[in-house]
Amino acid sequence: MGARARSAAIALVAILSAAGVASAELVILTNQGATPGVRELAAAFSRASGHRLTVLQETGAALERLIKSGPADLITSNPEPIADLVKQGKVVAGTVTPFVLADLGVSVRAGAPKPDISTVEAYKAALLAAKSIGYSYGCSGTHAADGIAQLGLTEQLKAKTVRTGNGPVTDYLAKGDFELGIQQTNIMVGVPGTDYVGPVPGFLNKPCPSSVALLAVSKEPEAARSMIKFMVSPEAAPLLRKTHVEPVSP
Question: Which helix (H) or strand (E) is 197 found in, with range?
């Protein structure tokens, strides 16, 4: 076990001992942008605590069923959806905890020339030069579109812009649906069929936040609360950074 893993294990033992938590099975429902980091943290939490954790990335009706009826204990999402769930009584008030920020990045299809995006002006030129551009309707897509609007390019790029549906932007990019893709760096780096170029530069790179919260249907609220504590602990920070996101301190 490496130094980071030992540190995380020690922290978890302290958290679990203080809570008096016995072995449990936890289900974490995650949003796409938080999934890599949550999987990393879940694996560390499971190794150190003996709990069994399942991380599910669901959408639509399947997600709604799990939120309403379970089995599910924790949920991660952007702040607005979490706030709505609190209002609906599906998330326990007072447990909502911001834990991660994910910056925007740019990728191209594998083997394609990588454009210069090192400055705002270079990024603007790359967008204008690209034959086609793709980004999602989620948080990263909203921020990408906002950045394009700040550059005054919305109308100029409209005809060659593709808005993607479910799944990572890189899935569409790898198939050749467009030439340049924009999404959160943590779900772009290392995807087969694509090459990561770099972060969106300067003030245009507005990160996407994710929070974690306890679901009202949880059968293991004590263990779930311990997981929340671990997710914002100092020991969790390097594990999150491995997945190209920035941890949020409580």
Answer: strand 194-199
The string of pLDDT tens digits covering residues 85-135 is 999 999 999 999 999 999 999 999 999 999 999 999 999 999 999 999 999
Sign of the dihedral defined by the CA atoms of residues 168, 173, 176, 178, in that order: positive
Torsion angle (degrees, nearest 10) of CA 171, 142, 32, 206:
110
3-state secondary structure of 127: helix
- The Cβ-side half-sphere exposure at 57, using a 13 Å CA radius, reads 12
What pTM was computed for the model?
0.85
Residue burial 173-207, b: 16+ Cβ < 10 Å; e: rest:
bbeeebbbbbbbbbbbbebeebbbbebbbeebbbb
Q: Which CATH number fits domain 104-204: 3.90.226.10, 3.40.50.720, 3.30.565.10, 3.40.190.10?
A: 3.40.190.10
